Each structure stands twice: as structure tokens, then as C-alpha cells.
Amino acid sequence: xxxxxxxxxxxxxxxxxxxxxxxxxxxxxxxxxxxxxxxxxxxxxxxxxxxxxxxxxxxxxxxxxxxxxxxxxxxxxxxxxxxxxxxxxxxxxxxxxxxxxxxxxxxxxxxxxxxxxxxxxxxxxxxxxxxxxxxxxxxxxxxxxxxxxxxxxxxxxxxxxxxxxxxxxxxxxxxxxxxxxxxxxxxxxxxxxxxxxxxxxxxxxxxxxxxxxxxxxxxxxxxxxxxxxxxxxxxxxxxxx
Length: 241
Fold this sequence. Notes:
This protein is an alpha+beta fold. The chain is 45% helix and 10% strand. A hairpin with an 8-residue loop joins strand 6 and strand 7. The longest helix is centred in the last third of the chain and has 26 residues.
């Protein structure tokens, strides 16, 4: 229909496939502090030629100096550069280093790592009786939205995890406030030790609240998921050899 396509990749860039050109994405934005594990304050963006042309033809007055894309295009253009703002140099150096680390790991390796730890966390949470908010085909490895058990003070659980274990999980937003927990597995924090810490800490807190949760079952399920994935990786490498 000729519509412009815009994509929110704030919790996606670097950890799941984002094929901007192949998918004909016109405008896409992300964030430096999420999956790239960088300092906050930057938002990587990309615009297609269609978007640039659309912005240049706009006749309505832009009421925001900071968000006027025409001014930013002139600022980014090396040939006719016009001052717009002081560049956040330190943040850009930090982003450069974060991207080097991602390149060193390999983009597809990063995708695989996030998928691997997601499946282990998922196995452990489900062994506790937790249910995910969305169907498996719609789940993101880096953002695990889980329904809170009935009768549990979800805010108290989050507070206890933070104060006693130094572990912070996200709350539900908008209509999901008080109904879900959001477990983030992003960038540097996406590691097996964090998966196991999360399962053991959450199980301990829920047990203290008299919820019949078996921490050992959750940990065993996560270890079992890791073992199954290792076997599949070994078989795949053997076939490729």
C-alpha cells in the first residue's frame, strides 16, 4: 500500500536477526543500553531513501529543534554539514567499543547465545509452574514475559530479589501492570550464571511466601535444557564436518 514501515528494535538489535535491507524497513531505531550493553543515551537509527525523501518534502513546521530530521540530515552530511548539537563523544566511543565486542563474538554467535540461555531460563521457569504471556512462536529470547502466580505480591517479590540477591526483574507496564514479570537476557548479562541465579533466587523468594515451588526441579530443568542444546550442537557440527 506504499506505507512506510517503522521498527522498534530497542530490545532486539544485536541479539536477534534484524535484516533492515532484506525486510525493506524504512525507519528503525534501537538503544545503546539494552542488548548492546553500552552506556545509555544513544539511539542508533537507520532511514531508507523513501523516508529521507518523505522528510525533505514535508511542508508542516517541525516544532522540535532536536527531532527535526531535516536539520539532523544536514548535520550528518559530511559534504554540507551544518551545526545542530554537540556530539556525545564519550558515548560514541563507548558504543564503538560495544560494537567491536559484538563483532568479536560474531553476530550469529550472539543470536545463538541469547536463544540458548532463553531456552534454559524458560525450562526452569516452566518447571516452577510459570506460564509465559505469549505463545512460544512469538517469544523473544531477550525479553521473557511471565505471568505472575495467583495470590503472589509481585511487587514484594521484585523488591526482595533486588534487596537480598541484587537481582532486578522488570514489572508489567500499562494494562499488564501487576500481572507479569519481565526477565531480561540482554547482551553481557545473558550468561548461564545469571540464568541459574535467577531461578534459585526466585524459587527461594516464592518458597518464603509459601508458594509450593521446587527450586531443585527448576535448576535441573535448566541444566537439562543446556545438555540437550549441547548435544544438538555437537550433532550439527559432526554433520557439517
